[in-house]
Amino acid sequence: MTLAPLRGRGLWTPGLWSLDSGFWTLENHLYSYVSYRLVYGRGSNRPTIATRWIGFTLGLAAIVVPAFGRAQSPVQREAGFYRFKLGAFEIVTLNDCTIPYPTSTIVGLAPAQIDSGLAEWSLASPVGMTYSAFLVNTGTMVVLIDAGTGGKMSDNPGFHGCDQMLINMRRAGYDPARVDEIYISHIGPDHVGGLTTGTERTFPNAIVRAADDEIGEYIDSARARAAIDRASDRKAEQEWFDFQRSLFEPYRRAGRVRTFTGDVDLVPGVRALATHGHSPGHTSYIVASRGDTLIMTGDLLHWAAVQFAHPEASTVFDSDQQAAATQRKRVLEIAAKHGYWIAGSHLPFPGIGHVKSANGRYYWLPLVRPLRGRDSRLRALRAR
Ligand SMILES: [Zn+2]
Questions:
Q1: CA dihedral angle for residue 234, residue 235, residue 241, residue 242, rounded to 10 degrees
Q2: What is the CA(148)–ligand 1 centre distance, in A?
Q3: Closest CA to 194 of 185, 207, 186, 203
Q4: Domain ranges for the chain
Q5: Which residues, listed in sequence order, are joined to residue 142 by a DSSP beta bridge?
Q6: pTM score, two decimals?
Q7: Could you report the per-residue pLDDT of 87-99, keeping only the tens digit for each?
Q8: Which helix (H) or strand (E) holds 355?
Q9: Predicted local confidence at residue 40, as pLDDT
Q10: Ligand 1 centroid to residue 346 C-alpha, Å
Q11: How far is the CA of 9 from the centre of ligand 1 (A)?
């Protein structure tokens, strides 16, 4: 396995390029073993979100830690922010970081299918995975969809330096105090970690909204107790609940957390779309202005190079892999049929594009690509 296709993209420091295929094979085995024991290990018949994340972070540490003597950080910091006009709204992609991911996180596909997806994009494992949040300025409201890691994962060497979302928000001209509403796709640490800075609200004037199926347990102590009691590893579950509670509690105390159920309108132009599967209450958000529509898909897609060709493929992070695949196919179908934009937390920066359906599969048409001759943005550029 060669790393050459990623060379020169600023993702890795030069020391890592000397790693040979033997190391990556070892890493894949380590990852699989650690994840397997933690997710499916001794007596556990209910793989929890907590154990999945512990498995993943340990697995990622197994990738990065051995290389640390030669490489300070694999995190890409320079991606920044990207401004995009959707009708009368301004959408801003706010990058948190980009880190290397092994393809061993993909499930449900043969290795040859994964390799052919990567080859189509001239990639090889590991692939740089983007972490982004999205800001929507409707003209009257500033809405943030997900809140980044907030540096809460930086104790894991694989995520060291993954804390750029807030910096990029300020660079884009938005102070955190200007955020009116925060919509959570799900409770992954990379999506909710940034809610707090220390023990304080990062966004002091914001209302936080999320599906009841997703955060209800973390803001209601009786439901939390029942969920912890049900878990096979109560200690890990308790730690997970304590972490989640620490993020939501400052907002709850201030009366600034609201939950919803199903598909509901939130503010004019933004609507929740239940896409449960990646997590029990995973939610996408439909943003629409003056005939333009964008669906923010959260974690429906992790592997652009593979999952547009094979939307049936899920990942080890999907708590219900079947449901996640069903929702992924459903949203891709809607977007392709109606010509909607989609945005994804882990799609290649700036994470916005169109979807095309052809040859029994989907294709990703990223926003940043040559403009069509009749595109209004091209006319605007020529008129300058
Ligand atoms: Zn995520």
A1: 150
A2: 9
A3: 203
A4: 4-67, 81-366
A5: 137
A6: 0.80
A7: 999 999 999 999 9
A8: strand 352-358
A9: 32
A10: 7
A11: 22
Distance of CA 248 to the CA centre of its chain: 19
pLDDT classification of 31: cutoffs 50, 70, 90: very low
Tokens 């201030």 correspond to: 254
Cα–ligand 1 centroid distance for 345 (angstroms)? 6
Structure tokens at 373: 């001759």
Per-residue exposure over 273-288, b if at least 16 CB sit within 10 Å of its own CB, e if not: bbbbbbbbbbbbbbbb
Tens digits of residue pLDDT in 308-328: 999 999 999 999 999 999 999
CA distance linking residue 10 with residue 99, whole number of Å: 11
Residue 360 CB partners (closer than 8 Å, separation 6+): none
- How do residues 167-219 score in pLDDT, each as one tens digit? 999 999 999 999 999 999 999 999 999 999 999 999 999 999 999 999 999 99
Of 106, 14, 115, the C-alpha closest to 315 is 106
Q: Report the topology of domain 81-366.
A: Metallo-beta-lactamase; Chain A (3.60.15)
